[in-house]
């Protein structure tokens, strides 16, 4: 098939550091190429991909040093380029929320739109009701709850390339890991409290967005002065296997309806157990007692830290390979592409989806 992937322009594909959606676009695109398909990627110019790249911006927005820039203008220019070339593709796969809806109405039948973010926001129900012709993909069943009447066609969970993550590191098991972003809903303060009660060092590898700098300065920085916490800062893919693979467990103590939680499967790829709060998509990702533990309180989390040492890391890695590899994700999307184009699924070993 001739497939195009339309990526957000906020981060590189894949991101140099933090970034979820663009990382998934990168892994999906390369997996589709490896499966023999003709794939075109619309993204910023520094993208690293096996597909045909159409560079639509010189640099991803977040790390662009220009102080004044318009994300809206950049995305509109990209959408116009996609529109001009739409006849070249069998399927146009959008990862840019719903900004393309007004411009591709007569082509909605040849599009797939994966929604990567939370959907419990004002104005979204009216917008998705306004454009019901677009086939929508959720990344978890829980993500759909605020918009049950939207035009959902599948739930397809994220996947990652184990080649990019590398082999699981030999675990030292002498610290707990927190990876991602410093923000109130991610609850790094809760992670610090759990680690201290469990008697293990917490290593925090996270970025601090401008909107969260006050929270970091007022709430988190004072906690870093105490014992047992090491703030590493933002890290890239090359550093993740060692950071995650050598941890006793990943702490994922979220306090919001997480649509997926990519860091959980990054940890599983390294054979590392996940201790996660029962929020959002967590119960769909973590197999309690096998790949980690699902908890609802700090007391449960502290007990789970001790139990995590008894989990079998090769089993965790195997679960990742069976459920969350980039190839599994790509085959699931291929089944959907084919179904939309031909009315039936191809004869592919597609993993079960919601």
From TrEMBL:
Domain (Glycosyl transferase family): residue spans on this chain: 172-309
CDD domains in alphabetical order: GT4_AviGT4-like
One Pfam family of this chain: Glycos_transf_1
Record-annotated Glycosyltransferase subfamily 4-like N-terminal domain positions: 18-126
InterPro entries per the UniProt record, alphabetical: Glyco_trans_1 (IPR001296), Glyco_trans_4-like_N (IPR028098)
Annotated GO MF terms: glycosyltransferase activity
Signal peptide per UniProt: none
Name of the protein described by the UniProt record: Glycosyltransferase family 4 protein
Organism: Marinimicrococcus flavescens
């Amino acid at each position: 098939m001739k497939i195009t992937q339309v990526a957000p322009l906020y981060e590189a594909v894949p991101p140099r550091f933090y970034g979820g959606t663009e990382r998934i676009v990168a892994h999906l695109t390369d997996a589709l190429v490896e499966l023999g398909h003709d794939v075109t990627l619309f993204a910023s110019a520094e993208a690293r991909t096996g597909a045909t790249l159409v560079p639509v911006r010189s640099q991803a927005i977040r790390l662009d040093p220009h102080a004044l820039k318009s994300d809206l203008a950049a995305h509109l220019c990209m959408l116009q380029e996609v529109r001009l070339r739409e006849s070249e593709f069998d399927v146009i796969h959008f990862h840019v929320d719903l900004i393309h809806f007004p411009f591709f109405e007569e082509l909605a039948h040849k599009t797939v739109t994966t929604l990567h973010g939370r959907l419990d926001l004002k104005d979204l129900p009216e917008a998705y009701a306004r454009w019901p012709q677009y086939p929508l993909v959720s990344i978890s069943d829980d993500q759909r709850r605020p918009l049950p009447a939207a035009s959902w066609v599948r739930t397809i969970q994220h996947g990652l390339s184990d080649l990019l993550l590398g082999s699981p590191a030999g675990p030292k098991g002498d610290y707990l890991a927190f990876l991602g972003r410093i923000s109130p809903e991610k609850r790094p303060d809760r992670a610090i409290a759990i680690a201290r009660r469990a008697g293990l060092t917490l290593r925090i590898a996270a970025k601090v967005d401008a909107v969260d700098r006050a929270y970091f300065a007022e709430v988190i920085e004072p906690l870093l002065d105490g014992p047992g916490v090491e703030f590493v800062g933002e890290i890239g893919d090359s550093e993740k296997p060692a950071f995650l693979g050598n941890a006793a467990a990943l702490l994922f103590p979220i306090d919001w309806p997480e649509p997926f939680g990519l860091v959980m499967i990054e940890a599983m790829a390294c054979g590392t157990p996940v201790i996660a709060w029962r929020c959002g998509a967590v119960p769909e990702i973590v197999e309690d007692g096998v790949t980690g533990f699902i908890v609802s309180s700090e007391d449960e989390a502290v007990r789970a830290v001790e139990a995590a040492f008894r989990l079998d890391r090769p089993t965790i890695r195997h679960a990742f390979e069976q459920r969350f590899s980039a190839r599994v994700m790509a085959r699931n999307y291929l089944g959907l592409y084919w179904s939309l184009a031909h009315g039936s699924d191809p004869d592919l070993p597609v993993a079960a989806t919601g």
